[in-house]
Amino acid sequence: MEDDSSHRILVLNRVWQPVNVVGAKRAFSLLFQDHAQVIDPNDGDFRMYNGEQWIERSVSRPPRKNQGTMRTVNYALHIPSVLLLKSYDKVPVQEVKFCRQSIYERDGYRCQYSGRVYPPKMLNIDHVIPKHRGGKTTWENVVTSSIHCNTLKANRLPHEAGLKLIRKPFKPKARPFISNLINNGYEQNWAYFLEGKNK
Question: How sure is the predictor about 199, in pLDDT bands with cuts at 50, 70 and 90?
Fold first, then answer.
């Protein structure tokens, strides 16, 4: 099989909840090992196909040039956009990655000393307990700070600089997979499975 790695396929658990996004090669592996079925959102009635039926569909309605295609020795197969797992029913959660962007998002782009919201270019990350005083780089010790407040605080504790936190920093809860997917953008024909499940 020639793999078109530019295609992303949404994977649903057996109760139609999004649980993963895979490439074409992995999708066909799941399909032909009978772990999943194709759901065709373009059919309107969300018809499901097993591996053999998907081959038949691809042969009877060959993919056009602008459609995603997986070529085998004998066939040109449509690359599906959605798969439904046959037995998996869990919903994964993903840890929020510890990075500058995630800290800004946790704090709502709000300086945790002044309470004002700023654009990212006017923000910085501050260690509440400075590193040189044993402060660690953890969710519970870093906050979003305006560049002005960060400069004012310098290497001091907040009260030593006449500042006060508006909220104690915390580690965000893990996000359901669907939240991350919606935040990072998705294919148009996944909308029913994502937007409907998120309401």
Answer: very low
Residue corresponding to tokens 């030593």 = 160
Residues 157 and 105 in one domain: yes
Structure tokens at 117: 């919201």
Q: How far apart are the first and last CA of the chain?
A: 38
Tell me how far apart the alpha carbons of residues 108 and 169 are, in angstroms, rounded to a whole number: 12
Q: What domain count does the chain have?
A: 2
Pair (124, 141) in one structural domain:
yes
Is residue 130 scored above 90 in pLDDT?
Answer: yes
DSSP 122-157: GEEEEESS-GGGT--SSGGGEEEEEHHHHHHHTTS-
Domain extent at residue 180: 9-93+176-195
**The dihedral sign for the CA sequence 15, 17, 18, 20:** negative
Q: What is the pLDDT of residues 137-161, one digit of tens each?
A: 999 999 999 999 999 999 999 999 9
Q: Is residue 186 domain-resident?
A: yes
User: Who's near 97: CB < 8 A, 6+ residues apart?
Assistant: none
- Specify whether 62 is located in the same domain as 117: no
